[in-house]
Amino acid sequence: MSSASWLTSLTCSSSIIQNLDGPTTFTVANQWLRFIFLFPCPQIVLYSSIDLLFLLTFVVFSIKKLFSRFRSSSDTTSSLIDEPLLGNNRSHLQYNFWFKLSLVAITLLAIAHTILCIFNILQNQSTKSPWKLTEAMFHLVQAITQVATLAVIAYERKSQAVSHLMPLRIYWVLNFVMTCLFAATAITRLTSVGEYNNMDSGLRFDDMFFLASLHVSAFLCAVAVRGHSGISVIRELETGVNSRTQLHELASKDANMSGYASASLVSRAVFLWVNPLIKKGYKAPLKGDEVPSLPPDHRAEKMSELFQMN
Q1: pTM, 2 dp
Q2: Which sign, positive or negative, has the C-alpha torsion 221, 227, 229, 232?
């Protein structure tokens, strides 16, 4: 089989391996790898398998969460445990550039796969081609998977997760690897096949799509490697004033602030900042109003905020 024909072959049958070029050059294992990773149909099956595995993980995770919520609602002990230990402090969320761009990228992928699915369904009605139906199902699975990732991110937002869930991060990395494989095959077809315009229209659209979506998959892979969800939790005290702002306002009005707050790195390292207090205490016992107060970042309010955030 020539390179022009196997690059554009739409068959899913492994019997085509026997017709590959170079039977004396390629071993059976190499021919199988060539068939699985370079032929359009096995590529789609492999990619869809990764999507279905992620969807299965998503379903199991959802069932587990629903079951745990049902148990917690019926168990009074669990409801007591869920009560916050340090009061019902209010909080609000902030979303950085990574979070917002991730939502845009996933939404664009979901829309693009939905459009390609509809396009292949319409093509199948006119041509009655099994390949069109295969492509339609592939893009349908892809679109459902992207919607599932949006649901996972919505859950992370609701649970105020500062890091993406590990299954989502693994999927984004595998998604990038498969997109690179599709893009490399598309480039090979563009440079090796003489009559590229005579190929199946669906295959051409897929090639253009994966070449265009390579940048989006690369960005999502970078988000997965980075790990941070882009969600920042800002806690507020019961008074409704931001805790950090309130603490620093109090510190600015406190004339008896500990010297540690304004001490240099060298002073902190060798405890020079505490010498005036030691000298004063050596001369006479310290009174209560002479004991300096803690810096804002070391006060109980700040420690309480860190405890709740984690």
Answers
A1: 0.64
A2: negative
